[in-house]
Design brief:
By secondary structure, this protein is α+β, with helices and mostly antiparallel strands. The protein contains 7 helices and 21 strands. The protein is globular. About 6% of the residues have low confidence.
């Protein structure tokens, strides 16, 4: 990988582009190989545990250096040939060169290490539940582009006009450089079939002066029909539940593992003995509606009014009468759960209260985790149990420290591999009040 030297390059402890040899001891939760040279930590993307490699330093930080993989001198027995020809340049995947069972084993180990180091908890993490599909699973991709002249296609962009620009994903280790991606191996077949035409449309519109700066292209697979329209209504079936939502809205994008994923969340919530369930980041109703028949009442809370409207429509369409949804004010997320309003417009609806000690709360926050305001309200509500779903175990483990400080005990940690070939995973943690 070629990189331009920055004027402010810090040359301690290594000069720019210095080549070094080292053993790779582990993988970080960012999917990067980690080794040491004279006790100095060096991160090498695409290097695997147990390998000896030659690497070229491109950045020195205060406590570690980053280096590009130049050669594998002693390969791991689990190293395999990647499927995608762009692997090693495109930053979308980290593990295509790693046997899938080893990907799962290391993801489990990474969760255990985060639990130990960030939450201060020793706990046996269950083996990662793998995806039924290892490639061709992703039902949504968002390639980026910048139509400015400074983003001309590099020499590796074979097959593209010299006046075109890359449409794809960030280059590994870069902040702005985009790798041209004419095909994504982890995306579904219908997305790849539509991608060529979508890329041609973008180039044509750019040539007509439609773009003054970069943008993001959305491709979403709705049961084999792919849309690029952010406002298109998508229909997704999960088990026996049908859900509708806008293409731009958040929704898990590996439909092949979703039945097992939602079944587990429901089973964990039900195992707490709670009578009621609150889905505090409900979106269009994924967890609330797939769990509703296991509880007397279910309440969904979501800040997005449009998502709440879809959740309500989804409840009616699936014949679920015991689920209520409300757009919650960020400063009063749980307001109304324990109050009978008699009018049917709030979460109380004249029905039995959501008594905290009879309620389990499911939370699936953004990647940044729960903010202080949300956690303060959750702890004030004081539910019997919490099932915490996270796409970033690092922020999840950070939040766990607050749960344990409030007397919640960890009872289960189950990772799911919704994102094969990448460093990402979903982790479901179950906590019960003391």
């Amino acid at each position: 990988m070629s990189r331009n030297r920055k004027k402010t390059f810090n040359d301690k402890p290594f000069a720019y582009h210095a080549e070094i040899e080292l053993e790779i001891h582990t993988l970080t939760n960012l999917g990067v190989g980690l080794g040491r040279v004279d006790n100095w930590v060096v991160m090498v993307a695409f290097a695997l545990p147990g390998e000896r490699v030659r690497a070229r330093v491109f950045r020195n930080h205060k406590n570690f250096s980053e280096a590009d993989l130049v050669a594998v001198l002693k390969p791991s027995p689990h190293r395999i040939a990647p499927v995608c020809p762009l692997f090693g340049r495109c930053g979308g995947c980290q593990y295509q060169n790693f046997e899938y069972e080893e990907q799962l084993a290391w993801k489990r180990r990474q969760v255990e290490e985060l639990l130990r180091h960030m939450a201060g908890i020793e706990f046996a993490v269950a083996p990662v539940i793998g995806s039924p599909r290892q490639y061709g699973y992703r039902s949504k991709i968002t390639p980026h582009f910048n139509s400015g002249g400074s983003f001309q296609l590099p020499s590796e962009g074979a097959g593209c006009s010299p006046h075109s620009f890359p449409i794809g994903f960030l280059r590994q280790g870069a902040r702005f450089d985009i790798v041209d991606v004419p095909r994504c191996e982890i995306a579904t077949a219908p997305i790849n079939e539509r991608l060529a035409a979508a890329r041609a449309d973008i180039q044509r519109l750019a040539a007509a002066g439609e773009f003054t700066r970069g943008a993001t292209l959305l491709l979403r697979d709705a049961g084999g029909e792919v849309t690029t329209d952010y406002d298109r209504v998508i229909t997704e079936r999960v088990g026996d539940i049908t859900l509708r939502f806008l293409a731009r809205d958040f929704f898990q994008n590996n439909p092949f593992i979703l039945p097992a994923f939602t079944d587990y969340v429901r089973a964990q919530a039900r195992s707490t003995g709670a009578r009621f369930l609150v889905d505090a980041y409900c979106g269009s109703g994924l967890f609330a509606l797939t769990s509703a028949r296991a509880f007397e009442r279910v309440a969904g809370v979501e800040i997005s009014e449009s998502s709440v409207n879809f959740a309500r429509e989804n409840a009616v369409a699936n014949g679920i009468a015991n689920a209520t949804f409300q757009a919650g004010d960020a400063s009063a997320i749980f307001a109304g759960l324990g109050v009978e309003d008699g009018g049917g417009g709030g979460l109380g609806g004249g029905a039995p209260d959501f008594a905290p000690r009879e309620t389990v709360v499911v939370i699936d926050p953004p990647r940044k985790g729960c903010d202080e305001n949300f956690l303060a309200q959750l702890f004030a509500f004081g539910p019997r149990a919490v099932v915490y779903v996270s796409c970033d175990p690092a922020t999840q483990m950070r939040d766990l420290k607050q749960f344990t400080a409030r007397g919640y005990a960890l009872t289960a940690v189950q990772p799911f591999d919704l994102f094969p070939q990448t460093r990402h995973l979903e982790c479901v943690v179950t906590l019960r009040a003391g």
